[in-house]
Amino acid sequence: MPACASRSSARLALAAALAWATAAAPARANDPAPAPPGLREAVAGALVRPQGPRFAAYRWPREPEIVALYYGADWCAPCHAFVPELRAVHDALRAAGADTEVVYVSLDASEREMHRYMARQAMPWPAIDHRRVERMPGLRALGGMAPPNLVLLDRDGTVLASGWAGRRYEGLAPVLRAWVERAGAQAVPPP
To answer: Is 107's pLDDT higher than 80?
Structure first.
């Protein structure tokens, strides 16, 4: 495929993702806040991927500019409904060349339940090792009051957007929109 056709396809996918995110909810942005110190490093050091019936340690070849922390669980019906939307936006951003990745943060009671949920949803992204989530209070605090939640972190550890603003649930559409706007702006150079 010619480079211009590939770039055009990427722009169309990104435009579709932005149109979906913009139509899904009215604009409302969270004020950026710092994540706990060292959280990005802690996340990078705790990554796993399913490998057969177990998990294997995973390292990014290069740490992404924007990390989208997805908080969910197998027992959460809204989480199951959200993953296809999350995957569509993730895939569109990656196809457009965005330097971003999702990291799953499991709120399941066991590693087995986490593995089952990731397999059922065919999650293509890494996760935080289930055994380490409880020892990462800063990570858990960002998750909000209940799943699902999505939290965007930039390379400096600044929270760019979250579905929770304190005890108030803002929803996931504004976070998806912020993700598409920020990561998409880096991804596709102007014509």
So the answer is: yes
